[in-house]
Amino acid sequence: MYKIIRAILFLFDPEKVHYFSMNVLKMMCGIGPVKKIIRLFFASNTNDPYSLFNIQFPNRIGLGAGFDKNAKYLRELEALGFGFVEIGTVTPLPQDGNDKPRLFRLPKDKALINRMGFNNDGVEVIAERLKTWKQTNVEAQTNNTKRLIIGGNIGKNKITSNEDAWKDYEKCFIALHPFVDYFVVNVSSPNTPGLRALQEKDALAKILTNLQQLNKKEPLPKPILLKIAPDLTVEQVDDVINLSLEINLDGLIVSNTTISRDDLQTDAKVISTMGAGGLSGLPVKNKSTALIQYISNTSGKRLTIIGSGGIFTGEDAAEKIKAGSSLVQVWTGFIYEGPGIVKRISNYLAKH
Fold this sequence. Notes:
Elements: H1 2-9, H2 14-29, H3 32-42, E1 50-52, E2 55-57, E3 61-63, H4 74-79, E4 84-90, E5 103-106, E6 111-114, H5 123-136, H6 138-143, E7 149-154, H7 165-176, E8 182-186, H8 201-216, E9 224-228, H9 234-246, E10 251-254, H10 268-274, E11 278-281, H11 285-298, E12 304-308, H12 314-323, E13 327-330, H13 332-337, H14 341-351
Parallel strand pairs: 3-4, 3-13, 4-7, 7-8, 8-9, 9-10, 10-12, 12-13
Antiparallel strand pairs: 1-2, 5-6, 6-11
C-alpha cells in the first residue's frame, strides 16, 4: 500500500510533500480514536525497552535530526512508534536556511541529497514548544517508562563565526536543557559554510568542555553526544575518539550525511544538476557501519554510539548494533519504507 502512496508522493517536490504528509498526519492524530488506530497499526507491540544514560528508551529505534526540526510533530511521531526523536538542528536565532530547491530524491539509490542549511524557528520558539509538550505530557514524563524520549540537536547560526561558535552552542544548550533528555552537538553538517572545520580537535574541545561545565551546574545533567561526518580521515576520527575519552563525552552519533557521490546508480548529469549537499540513505550504509566498527574497536568499546546511515530494514539495524551501536536512527529509510518501518525493525530485533 505504501509503495503506491510513495509513487504518487514522489511526483511532487520533496520538501512540500514532507510538510503536507506530516500535517495530514497531525490532523488525523488530533482525533483521539484515529490516533489510537494509527498507533495500533504502526507502533510495535513488542515490549523491548532499552536503558542508556539512565534513560529508559521505549525501544532502540529513533528518528534522526532534520525531520522534525521545530518539534512540531512529536505526538504524531510517537504514535508511529518511535522510541526517541531528535529535534533540530536548533540555532539561537531563527533562520530560513538555503535557497530552494534544497531537497532531492535519488530513487535508484534509495537516497536523498539535502542542503537545508539549519532552517529552524530559533531556540526561543522551539524551547517554548517543548515546554508545552512537556506540560501536556506530565503524567507520561513522571510515571510512564514508555514516554517518547526527546533529543536536542544544536548548531550555530550561519552568520556566527567559527571563533564564536561555542557561544551559539551554549545559548541553545541553556535554553533547551529543561526540556530535552539528551543533547547532540552538530558540527558535521556539510550545508553550513565552514561548519565541518569545527570537527578539528581544538575547536571541538572548546565547544564540548564548555557545555560539560555548564552541564555540571545543572541539578539534573543531560547526556551530551557529538555527531560526526562519515568523511573524516582516520587521523581526524582518532582525534575525535581521543578527545571523547579524554573529556568523558557521553557518546557519538555515527554518522551524518556524506559529501561523496561515489558509486551511485543515478545518472551523473542528474546528480550534477542537484548541486551540493549531504547524501543520505543506502549509499551511506556501509561507510557508517565501518566507522561505527572502527570507533567501537579503537575505543575498546568505551564510547557509546548511536548508529545512523542507510537503515531501511531490521537487518540493517542489527548490523549497526553488531558493529557497536546501542541505539539506531532512521531518516531516509523512513521516507522510502514508510510509517511501518519502526514496527518492522522492532519486530526483527525482538526476534534476533
